[in-house]
Design goal:
The chain has about 475 residues and is an alpha+beta fold. The protein contains 6 helices and 30 strands.
């Protein structure tokens, strides 16, 4: 067997270091496979320390390295061949610290693998705007979306975009006299796809996007700005007549039937002598047959009120101690199941709406998602147990609600009361330095959503692996 080339190589290395010349040539490239440079830089501790470091690194190569160590005048320390029995087993066994580091490494690799299986939020397209964006909505049965807001001149702007590959193409721009605050397709048919908007002047308008110059329905609904709007009975979602609900700064919540001109079909307002509170958000629910329907409203003082439109009465109310920014039922067209309410303080509450206790109301679970305001909550249309919240720090959080093994139980007096489930965070991502004020899932394509932020940018996102959660 030919002799190992390492001893000659080390003698050559020592000579070159003494003379201060770099070591180069084909032998170095064959041994190290790298560029023409010394394999180890001179040690700041001196030549002997450098040779000792070299010997320790080469000791990983076995017997040839031990022979190289003897060439440098040093014997290998504690070779395994000189040990036997228990001493050999003790020397070969990893230390406790090594075992601990290996266990941590395995856990990290496992966590990384688990992280790769989690849903990912991918930014697919984005468009910079020259106005303040307040709301954005997908146009049903299309790859188009609407953006609405306020220009610097104080007028309203409605823009229609189409998603083409990785960009947004502007198809139409419509300017109106008053800034537009909110909009919904919830009360229109799939054939017409009329868009209802609420503006800063308290006006409710319904637009035909094919001919948007004049609204097909218009009413002076409120004395002040319409903060929130929702629709039901259209798009094949919810039983009963198509209706629109609006909530305003004037403290009133009104329900409108587009077939009835000028007058609301229901008006929820403070009783005489009661101070009015700014209504920030409204939502329809419980529209599972021709008769049942409720409206939930959230106010600036933390009040949440549930109005039964069948009996025209207040069914339930509670207070979450901070302004309610957004409320939404997981589904509008089923018997009330869950309600999510977000607040100014960065906390949101999930109420189990199946069982109402006579005194305690509905069971709930709350989560402190972040330190800033949670502006919006939107449930995934294809899976009502998954929802996304948008935050004041420019972040999005994807959540999943887990039901308890038993959704109701009896209290000490024998009355039925609900049992809240638990929440798990699936993913979170920061997209902007400004609040994300609007959010909407595509009703047709699972995982496709759009969001708008106060940095005057609209973003189209794709959320992956939702079928695995």
């Amino acid at each position: 067997m030919p002799a190992s080339p390492l001893p000659a190589y080390l003698e050559r290395l020592r000579g070159h270091r003494r003379e201060g010349r770099p070591l180069a040539g084909p032998r170095l490239r064959r041994l190290h496979g790298g560029p023409r440079r010394p394999p180890f830089p001179p040690s700041p501790l001196g030549q002997d320390a450098g040779e000792a470091t070299l010997s320790r690194r080469l000791s990983l190569h076995g017997g040839a390295a031990a022979k190289a160590g003897r060439q440098l005048g040093r014997e290998p320390t504690c070779p395994l061949s000189s040990l036997s029995g228990r001493r050999l087993a003790a020397a070969a066994a990893p230390s406790a610290s090594c075992r601990a580091r290996s266990a941590v490494g395995r856990r990290r690799r496992g966590g990384m693998a688990a992280g790769l299986d989690r849903p990912q939020v991918v930014s697919h397209a984005q468009q910079a705007l020259n106005y303040t964006l307040f709301d954005c909505k997908w146009v049903p049965r299309s790859a188009r979306l609407l953006c609405l807001g306020s220009t610097a001149r104080g007028s309203g702007l409605l823009q229609l975009y189409e998603l083409r590959g990785g960009r947004l193409a502007l198809l139409r721009e419509i300017e109106k006299a008053k800034p537009l605050k909110c909009g919904t397709f919830g009360a229109t048919s799939l054939q017409q796809r009329y868009f209802a908007t609420g503006d800063f002047g308290g006006n409710l308008n319904i637009w035909n996007l094919e001919a948007p110059e004049i609204p097909v329905y218009s009413v002076k609904g409120h004395k002040e700005i319409i903060n929130s709007i929702d629709g039901v009975g259209g798009l094949g979602i919810g039983e009963g007549a198509p209706e629109i609900v609006t909530g305003s700064r004037d403290g009133t919540v009104k329900v409108w039937d587009p077939r009835q001109k000028d007058t609301p079909v229901a008006n929820m307002e403070p009783v005489q002598g009661e101070s009015k509170r700014d209504c920030w958000t409204v939502a329809f629910g419980n529209a599972y047959n021709q008769e049942e329907r409720v409206v939930c409203a959230g106010y600036d003082n933390g009040d949440i009120k549930l109005f039964d439109l069948k009996t025209m009465s207040l069914q339930w109310e509670t207070n979450i101690k901070n302004g309610v920014c957004s409320v939404e039922f997981d589904r509008k067209d089923v018997n009330m199941n869950k309600l999510v309410a977000t607040s100014l303080e960065g906390k949101f509450h999930v109420f189990d709406m199946r069982t109402q206790h006579p005194t305690k109301g509905f069971a709930s679970v709350s989560e402190k998602a972040q330190k800033s305001t949670i502006w919006q909550v939107r449930h995934l249309p294809q899976n009502r147990d998954i929802f996304m919240t948008s935050g004041g720090a420019g972040s999005l959080h994807l959540w999943k609600y887990e039901y308890p093994s038993q959704r109701s139980k009896k209290d000490s007096e024998g009355a039925e009361m609900g049992v809240a489930g638990s929440l798990s965070l699936l993913q979170n991502v920061t997209l902007s330095t400004q609040p994300i004020s609007s959010l909407d899932w595509s009703p047709d394509k699972k995982g496709l959503c759009v969001c708008g932020a106060f940095d005057q940018t609209v973003r189209v996102l794709i959320v992956t692996k939702l079928n695995k959660v």
